[in-house]
Amino acid sequence: MFDNLKKEHIVASDDYNRWKVPPASIAIHLCIGSVYAWSIFNPRLTKEFGVVGASSADWSLPSVVWIFSVAIVFLGLAAAFGGKWLEEVGPRMVGLVAAFCWGGGFIIGGFGILTHQLWLLYLGYGVLGGCGLGLGYVSPVSTLIRWFPDRRGMATGMAIMGFGGGAMIAAPIKEWLLGLYYQAPTYLGVESAANLVTEGGKRMAEVNGQMVEVVVATAKQLASAPIALEEGVYVVGTGNTGAAMTFFTLGVAYFIVMVIAAFSYRVPREGWLPAGWTPPAANANRMITHAHVHIDQALKTPQFWLLWIVLCFNVTAGIGVIGVAKTMMSDIFGTTLPLIVNSAFAATYVFMISVFNMVGRFFWASTSDFIGRKNTYHIFFVLGIILYVSIPFAAGQVSVNPAVTWLVMFYAATMIIFTMYGGGFATIPAYLADIFGTKYVGGIHGRLLTAWSTAGVLGPLAITKLREASVGNSISDLASKVDPAAFTEKFGAGIDQLNQLVAAKTVTIARLMEIAPAGTVDPTSSLYNTTMYAMAGLLVIGLICNSLVNPVHASHHMEPADAVPSKA
Predict the structure, then answer these.
(1) Is 106 helix (H, G, I), strand (E, B) or coil?
(2) 3-state secondary structure of 548
(3) Helix or strand (DSSP H, E) at 127
(4) Which run of H or E residues covers position 334?
């Protein structure tokens, strides 16, 4: 049964319409591309118990963000191993396995949320789902390059465009499902009427003769709830964020769509060329080779490792921002422009990231057919450096002068960044085909995607660790400015217990600002400054590496008799 899924059984006839292949590729990439809307889950997963606010037992933001990172790591690892397997068995079998991994990962992750077992989320969505990402990602790339040898950039842009657009479709669907399954927690009344005490850093209240943990929700916190709720005290452990049922629903839906798409894959026969098209002369473009480099030999060339760094640093600079996009928008502008940057605005921001990510994949990859892959990456790095440096400037200005101008500047800068982030992914397969030939481009591309795995760790690690350090410094600075008596009255404990209160999520920047002296500047908008400067530095290194990429030496080329892919 499984033998019938192999590529020798799905070879199309010469008169087959090659435009039937891209829809299947785009469908699979739209499903797995929903990973870019992961930040939609962050607010819900960090308050599974508190529902309207984080409780002491809830998962922290860094621990949740790392689930996204693990998924990206296993994407790269699965692509590295699956790329060579793809050359042997073809895209249909690889796409089917991807469907089982991606859909099954959501199901296991849903059980992790339901039982509050973080390791199950890592295993399901991170490990198994990440394998589905990698296999689903590489399954159409080499196939489309062979179907469209006349427009390599456009072909890979079409395939990978769906991955960038996945969040565009997934973001509103996820928000709708989370709202559908949402249940409000038990409400005890306004804060002033509740008899609250602090024990071990936790806020407690008496309910039916027992002391239970509660969260005090402000109007700002409740603004993100899908239903109207009153400001005040809510019982921890009641209600439902809807995250678990959303995972179950998406897992089933993605599996069905991906299986149908996988069975739609067809491959061209060996040596097939589009009607009326003749390959350009060998000397027409010295950066495009007509020879082929074996998948194992490619790793011995400096070009592979230069392109590895190019992709890794381009991705690192964007992936950390994507993972916390909704949180970052709220942090920088939520306090300075609250009437504009509310929950709906932040959700729309995530949606627009997906739009520009998707458009950038097709636009930049198609553009690279005319200006060259190397020049396209030069643009990514030079323009990216300027834009990353502009973000801290906009954040600093809005904290002093809360004008919409700075929001527009931030929005425009990040959207251009995301077009180049997506464009980098869509352009790299064609870049590899130019440098190493088309015979093993699927496998070489899979191995290069280990750069994505590395970036999946570096990006979120940088943005969460640097943000965490900034938060800690800001809380300490604010606590030193507030009146100790006001602090004790607000939190039920003295400033000497600050670390314990912060660990229990009782003390936050927002709550300290409520008792800070008049004229105190809210430091929230500057939490990401250091990260943006670090990302700009990585792009400088990427620019240098891209400038060093040259054609592969002839000693690495395969002999003509060996240029036919083996089945071993």
Answers:
(1) helix
(2) coil
(3) none
(4) none
Rg (CA), the chain: 25
Alpha carbons within 13 angstroms on the beta-carbon side of residue 49 total 17
The angle formed by the CA atoms of residues 158, 535 and 465, to the nearest 5 degrees, is 110
How far, in Å, are 121, 138, 178, 349 from residue 172 at the CA level?
A: 22, 26, 10, 11
CB 166 within 8 A of CB 354: yes
Per-residue pLDDT, 1: 58
Q: What's the number of CA atoms in the CB half-sphere (13 Å) around residue 39?
A: 25
The residue ranking higher by pLDDT, 158 or 451, is: 451
Beta partners for residue 202, in sequence order:
199
How many angstroms separate the CA atoms of 107 and 243, rounded? 12
Q: CA 180 from chain center: how many Å? A: 24
DSSP sequence for 488-507: HHHHSS-GGGHHHHHHTT-S
Q: Which amino acid, one-letter code, is at 215?
A: V
Instruction: Give the whole-angstrom CA distance, residue 364 versus residue 361.
Output: 6
Angle, helix 450-481 to helix 441-448, in steps of 10 degrees: 20
pTM score of the predicted model = 0.73
Q: Do strands 202-207 and 210-217 pair parallel, antiparallel, or not at all (unpaired)?
A: antiparallel
pLDDT at residue 285, rounded to an integer: 61
Mean pLDDT of 257-265: 93
User: Structure tokens of 435?
Assistant: 């440098």
Q: What DSSP assignment string belongs to 1-32?
A: -GGGGSGGGSBPPTT--GGGHHHHHHHHHHHH
What is the distance between the alpha carbons of residues 231 and 197, in angstroms, rounded to a whole number? 18
Q: Domain spanning 2-183+240-268+292-482+517-551: which superfamily?
A: MFS general substrate transporter like domains (1.20.1250.20)
Give the whole-angstrom CA distance, residue 450 versus residue 543: 19
CA triplet 223, 225, 229: central angle to 5 degrees? Answer: 80
pLDDT in tens, 361-417: 889 988 998 898 999 999 999 999 999 999 888 888 887 788 888 889 989 998 999
Task: Please say whether the beta carbons of 149 and 430 come within 8 A.
Answer: no
Cα 84 versus chain centre, distance = 25
pLDDT tens, 64-113? 988 988 998 899 889 888 888 887 888 999 999 999 999 999 999 999 99
Tokens representing residue 376 in the block: 């396209």
Q: How many CB atoms lie within 10 A of CB 315?
A: 28
Q: What is the mean pLDDT of residues 283-308?
A: 85
State which amino acid sits at residue 445: H
